[in-house]
Amino acid sequence: MPAVEFAYPRDELARIAEAALAQARTLGADAAEVSVSEDRGLSVTVRRGALETLEHHHDKGLSVTVYVGQRQGHASSSDLNPEAIERTVAAAVAIARLTAEDDAAGLPEAQRLADPQRVPDLSLFHPWALEAEAAIELARACEAAALAVDARIANSEGATVSTQAHQFVLANSLGFLAGYPTTAHSLSCSVIAQDEAGMERDHWWDWRRDPLDLEPAETIGRSAGRRAIARLGARRLPTGTYPVVFDHTVSGSLLSHFVHAASGGALYRKSSFLLGKLGERIFSPLVTVLEDPFIAKAPGSAPFDDEGVATAKRTVVAEGVLQGWFLSTYSGRKLGLPSTGNAGGAHNLFVPPTHESREALLREMGRGLLVTELMGHGVNPVTGDYSRGAAGFWVEGGEIVHPVSEITIAGNLLQMFAAIGGVADDARPCHRYRLGSTLIEAMQVAGD
User: Fold this and answer.
1) pLDDT per residue of the chain (448 residues) written in tens, 0 to 9
2) 36, 114, 200, 426: which is deepest, by most CB within 10 A?
3) Is the dihedral of CA 67, 68, 70, 75 positive or negative?
4) Cα separation of 387 and 170, whole Å?
5) Extended beta strands in 356-448, E state
């Protein structure tokens, strides 16, 4: 794809949004919100040196939410022609007139909206002038580096290069109108290693706003190859209770389970294991969780949320104690609380480390399991019960001894959170939830 050229100038997106709002008022809506967006991208996958997929995409869309009293209607369209916009707005108003009233429905309070004149530049837009031919060669170089690691790399699931650009404008009938462009670029590779004992697969990847920040293609390929080789000869473990270190590649899943349970939708539906826990210690005192939407180039950065509510830095967990929830305007009203600027989800979360490296954490653990891959979805968000397939490495004397596979790790998330014994300083900047390798002092492991 040549240098990114959006089909619609930003002021044209703003004009479309304002026209949709005006029509909503004309049709009798008391309030309305409109989002207009455009996406462009290129994705290339190479397998065994041959091009497997090449995809260009160019998408655009309009999303309209209207309120007639406290009745809500929503409609969307991928056509930005005036006639299509009129039909979409009319459909949203018609739907609103047919729905039941909802006391929590409505736009955010005006004082909570971000100031459109003071939207900070978070360095989220770094277009990549990447032609398809160059992307193919980059993917080939990545895969070739993986295959060259060892003769035991027997096959490849491919290497993928992706570059995406997005722009949007969000507007509502309270006078809010703002938007900005973003980019997302990634490289990944997955290969299969084989010896007389069997086959093992592993991968490596990187994701950045700025392509200049991506790990080199050869580095990603070599990492994928080395990780696959390291897993050869994996064996099961005796069933028992062991300390477990979640490698930084999987530890973010612990925060994702926390965010889900601490989100307004789960809370007002009473389907969260964190109900009634605000102000209580739910994590080890070693754990503080910070939310910062303003980190330059970060995946979760945003000056305002999906409703236009201003975002803010805050401490969500302080030395283990739960300080706040992740709320949209609607879920906040259902709970009798204000929005926290999290319509659309949590922003960048960061847990300050307690150990300088994963190696230091393994020495702290001494003997136990290092988990580098999780499988399945055995997490009950209501009770917090946790059971997932896992693979990784057995550790003795603080050193990796042999790879492990075909095991299940189990526990309860509240107990796991409380049993965190350390966090390494190895979180990757490409993750929205920056949690380094994490030691949990005891979990049930089912193996032989």
Assistant:
1) 445 679 999 999 999 999 999 999 999 999 999 999 999 999 999 999 999 999 999 999 999 999 999 999 999 999 999 999 999 999 999 999 999 999 999 999 999 999 999 999 999 999 999 999 999 999 999 999 999 999 999 999 999 999 999 999 999 999 999 999 999 999 999 999 999 989 999 999 999 999 999 999 999 999 999 999 999 999 999 999 999 999 999 999 999 999 999 999 999 999 999 999 999 999 999 999 999 999 999 999 999 999 999 999 999 999 999 999 999 999 999 999 999 999 999 999 999 999 999 999 999 999 999 999 999 888 999 999 999 999 999 999 999 999 999 999 999 999 999 999 999 999 999 999 999 999 999 999 998 8
2) 36
3) negative
4) 40
5) 368-375, 385-396, 399-412, 420-423, 433-434, 438-446
Alpha-helical regions (H) of 114-237: 132-147, 217-230
Which 8-state DSSP code applies to residue 96?
Answer: H
- Say whether 228 sits in a helix, a strand or coil: helix
Q: Please choose, from the candidates 33, 10, 15, 32, the residue with its C-alpha nearest in 3D space to the C-alpha of residue 119.
A: 10
Distance CA 79, CA 16 (A): 11
The answer to whether 426 touches 358, Cβ cutoff 8 Å, is yes
Total residue length of the chain:
448
> Which residues are paired to 169 by β-bridges?
36, 179
Q: How far apart are CA 293 and CA 330, in angstroms?
A: 21
Q: State the Cα torsion 328-433-348-419 to the nearest 10°.
A: 80
Among 352, 38, 386, 391, which Cα is nearest to 202's?
391
CB atoms within 10 A of CB 130: 20
Spatial CA neighbour of 199 closest among 236, 142, 159, 155:
155
Task: With H, G, I as helix, E, B as strand and everything else as coil, classify residue 176.
Answer: coil
Residue 261 has phi, psi (to 5 degrees) of -70, -25
Tell me, what DSSP letter sits at residue 110?
Answer: G
- With tokens 């989100």, the residue in question is 263
